[in-house]
Amino acid sequence: MANTRRPAVHAAELRGLKYFKILGPLLDRLHSQATQRDRAGNRKLFFDQYASLLLLYFFNPIVTSLRGIQQASAIDKVQKLLGCHRVALGSLSEASHVFDAAALHPLIAELASQALPIVVGKEAEALRGLTAVDGSLLPALSKMAWALWLDEEHRAAKMHVHFDVLRGVPVEVTVTEGNGSETAQLRATLQPQRLYVIDRGYADYQLFQDILDADSGFIGRIKSNAVWTVIEERPLSAAAVAAGVRSDRVVQLGGPQSGAVLKQALRIVEVHTTDEHGKPIVLLLATNRLDLDAELVALGYRYRRAIELFFRWFKCILGCKHLLATSRNGVTIQVYVGIIASLLISLWTGKKPTKRTWEMLQFYFCGLATTEELQAHIDRLEDQSGKKPA
Asked: Which segments of the chain does DSSP mark as H helices, in order?
């Protein structure tokens, strides 16, 4: 079947452009980078304009492709807001190769730093800095040779994300080929004063020590065949037993060779629980935090699910499963702008993005909801959380 021609994008269908104004100071630094498509030099696209057009793609459901972005750039209201002329399709295609994705990276940390905690109280204070880390695949075209994954016909990019659980926002992201090492990416992006929560795929004793050397801590699931030497058996409180904790030990983790890289004793907390399908499982959680109550170690690991929910939001609801570029740099730009879009929603609403909030934003951007109705939704979120959005 022939491709169905998509309807043109009209100004009346683009809502919420005023929200882009707050990005001006952040994106100004990108303005020095530009494409140049002709010898006269009178048809340019600057990086800040390109990033804003990508944000338009994420926030407006009427814009669904690179050609849709081009159509939106021809609208007078968009041109006045972004300071650009109608963008040629060739310029949009070239932009993914010309602009340096690394220039967007600092914006993620700046926006994330403005997010307020969404989890508070004594438990949150004890788990300060809790950061879930994981990777997620983005299906790619077979012609994307750099995106190595299963074989020549199955390509993928992988985004590696650090998610601040207590503030409900991503704070770090990198993009590699589908086969990219998750442990290597975490090792390269370690930050101080974090409490990293990681799954069995990161059960690398040298990585554990690297985290500690970076002045951070960890709660990490280890494999069932791990070996250790018990130094101390800790008594269990009633709260720990109620949380499914069956043992709490201070140990020397690893054997003579595998454990040689660890400079100090660690702690192994055994938790009996169920998986998402209700099947009983046993978690062996290693941590350097000898001060935490055992039930808080178990709780900290349960919070790891927050990053899985974020991936679902990012790919299925925000819409980043459709790649607009084929180069590694172009995919990285799209992922970074998608992360920025997610952060903006968190800052506007004062809570982590949810499907309901995204639907309300889409209704607004489609013209089905008024500004007052959108604000009423945000006000309800404020009433529920007790915190004023940024």
From this structure: 24-27, 47-59, 66-73, 76-82, 89-98, 105-112, 122-126, 182-188, 205-213, 238-242, 294-302, 305-312, 328-349, 355-366, 371-385
- Is residue 286 within 8 Å of residue 267, measured between CB atoms? yes
Compute CA distances 183 → 134, 157, 339, whole Å. Answer: 9, 16, 21
Residue 221 has a CB neighbour count (10 Å cut-off) of 20
Burial 35-49 (b: 16+ CB within 10 A, else e): beeeeeeeeebbbbb
> Residue 96 is which amino acid?
S
DSSP per residue over 219-249, as a string?
A: EEE--TT--EEEEEEPPPPHHHHHTTEEEEE
Tens of pLDDT along the chain (390 residues) come to 344 444 554 444 444 445 555 566 667 777 665 554 444 454 578 888 898 888 888 877 778 888 989 988 888 877 877 777 889 888 898 999 999 999 999 999 999 999 989 889 999 999 999 999 999 999 998 889 999 998 888 999 999 999 999 999 999 999 999 999 999 999 999 999 999 999 999 999 999 999 999 999 999 999 999 999 999 999 999 999 999 999 999 999 998 888 889 999 999 999 999 988 889 999 999 999 999 999 999 999 999 999 999 998 888 777 666 788 999 999 999 999 999 988 988 887 776 666 677 677 667 665 667 777 777 877 776 665 555 444
Q: Please state the φ and ψ torsions of residue 134, each to the nearest 5 degrees.
A: -165, 170
Instruction: State the DSSP H helix or E strand holding residue 130, giving kind and residue range, or none if neither.
Output: strand 130-140
Closest C-alpha among 305, 282, 301, 283 to residue 292: 301
Query: One-letter amino acid identity for 106?
Result: P
Contact 160, 191 (CB under 8 A): no
Per domain, the residue ranges of the chain are: 1-99, 200-303
Cβ-contact 228, 252 below 8 angstroms: yes
As given in the structure block, the two tokens for residue 330 are 């172009």
Which residue from 263, 229, 264 is spatially nearest to 249, judged by alpha carbons?
Answer: 229
d(CA 23, CA 100): 19
